[in-house]
From TrEMBL:
Protein name from the UniProt record: FAD synthase middle domain-containing protein
InterPro entries: FLAD1_M (IPR056596), MoaB/Mog-like_dom_sf (IPR036425)
GO molecular-function term, one example from the UniProt record: FAD diphosphatase activity
A GO BP annotation: flavin-containing compound metabolic process
Domain FAD synthase middle per the UniProt entry, residue ranges: 94-161
Pfam families hit by this protein: FLAD1_M
Superkingdom of origin: Eukaryota
């Protein structure tokens, strides 16, 4: 941080060795977890803000949108291989339903409880401004996930889709206040 801060800031001399409120504030920005399973990654020599990786979970800390975007771009070579490796053999299917989340919540909660031991995750995604919502079933056992489709579509008055919104029509816009 000292090296990058000094080279990128139009700041008069700063004393990194004498305790001061300004030094304390700067040090808080780089106080990160240490120890086994912890590492710090600087995605770019242009960015003085590090990314913390703890037990292979990535923590991106900046609140400034442009800085966050630059960090993600710099992290691409670190994240893409991890995403590709973790998504192998994962099967996902989507079901479009006219039911609002509140109407299907009990069923989806019960379904998630029932299928979690088989490694299946159930997701519900409202589609603002549309009359249909999307439910997903994700798991590694494609045959098992497929075996749930008939039940889920029947319970949700739904339809299996390949792409979210593929069964939308011009008349599917929600009328405000309805």
């Amino acid at each position: 941080m000292r090296k990058l801060w000094k080279s990128k800031r139009n700041e008069p001399f700063f004393d990194w060795d004498t305790p001061s409120p300004k030094l304390s504030a700067k040090l808080r920005m780089v106080t990160l977890p240490t120890g086994p399973g912890c590492r710090v990654y600087f995605p770019s020599e242009e960015l003085w803000v590090p990314i913390s990786i703890v037990n292979e979970n990535v923590h991106i800390l900046p609140g400034i949108p442009l800085l966050f975007q630059q960090m993600l771009t710099g992290l691409e070579k670190e994240l893409v291989p991890r995403i590709e490796a973790s998504s192998r053999n994962i099967f996902r299917l989507m079901i479009s339903t006219p039911q609002p989340e509140s109407q299907m919540a009990d069923y989806l909660t019960t379904l998630q409880e029932r299928v979690k031991d088989r490694g299946v995750k159930v997701g519900s995604y409202p589609r603002w401004g549309k009359t249909k919502n999307t439910v997903t079933l994700v798991g590694r056992d494609q045959e098992y996930v497929e075996s749930l489709v008939d039940e889920v579509t029947a319970q949700l008055d739904g339809k299996r889709i390949s792409v979210e919104g593929e069964d939308d029509s011009e008349t599917d816009e929600v009328v405000e206040g309805v």
